[in-house]
User: What shape does this take?
Amino acid sequence: MPIAFTDILKARQRIAPYVRRTPLAESPVLSDRAGRPVTLKLEHYQTTGAFKLRGATNAVLALSEDERAAGVTAASTGNHGRALSHAARATGARAIICMSKLVPDNKVRAIKALGAEARIIGMSQDDAQVEVDRLVSEGGMTMIPPFDHADVIAGQGTIGIEILEDAPETGTVVVPLSGGGLIAGIARAVKTLSPDAKVIGVTMDKGAAMHEALKAGHPVPVTELPSLADSLGGGIGENNAHTFEMVRDLVDEALLVTEAEIAEGIRFAYTEHGEVIEGAAAVGIAALLAGKLQSTGDDGTGPLTLLLSGKNIDPDLHRRIINGENPDLEREAAHA
Ligand SMILES: *Cc1c(COP(=O)(O)O)cnc(C)c1O
Assistant: This one.
């Protein structure tokens, strides 16, 4: 197993001064619906608005002084890019985030506001990645990937320790799943501290890369489609080194939810809990409300913890959903 529990303990100590220990809250209304105690891990309260700060901070702190001075780079404009920018500034490292000309202005500004350099290059994510590779080979920078990296996985795993410290009786942890860094780290921690506990991943049913890979037995390319859970988009990498194996070996089940179910999860978090969460973070609530956690092979009665992973949603999109709309982003993109 590439990431040991001791790596997660080390990460926890290392990142403690830089990340928030987020609260675990009871949800009486979801407990009522589920017929079992439900708690919410409020990780969307994390600095930068998503858990990715944990892994990025651990990865930057694991570098040598010289490597940190040379700087870190990535091609993400989403939660990983924000996390890496913040982590670099907090630890005195240089960061260059590469992005294509198609990236909207507000995302570029958000990255710059966090203290990173934004390098605008080419017309696609692939072009941006070429520039990242060049900064690594010619500029001596270190690329920090969003999920398939031992220090990143160990950083995300610290969430699992916190959940079991606050709710040792937890029987099942439900985690949003994309590249699998988050769930791999959490599963490693949870299954070490509480071997009988179950860990369930939830993904949108469009372009679910890890889900397809598990079915095929190896990473397979998937088409990325517009989804309310935009932070769950993208593949797991043809040459996946860590997360595929860890998810295959440690995760009990991978479930899928529809766009309408995700919208309902976002709405429910807001109307019942006053929490603004992004689509990726709403998949656990979505699965519970849709009755999809019933078939998960656990006894169906033990305490359940749902991880709310981030809050970075476009405010206009959020408003539409709260007002009762179920946006079809694929159709809207086709008609734009
Ligand atoms: C990245 C992300 C995920 C998925 O994490 P993986 O490690 O790629 O599985 C879930 N929720 C949010 C908000 C994210 O930013």
Q: What stands out?
A: The pocket of pyridoxal-5'-phosphate is lined by residues 50, 52, 79, 147, 176-183, 231-232, 278, 280-281, 309-310 (CB under 6 Å). Residues 168 and 194 are 8 Å apart (CA to CA). The chain has 15 helices and ten strands. The mean pLDDT is 94.
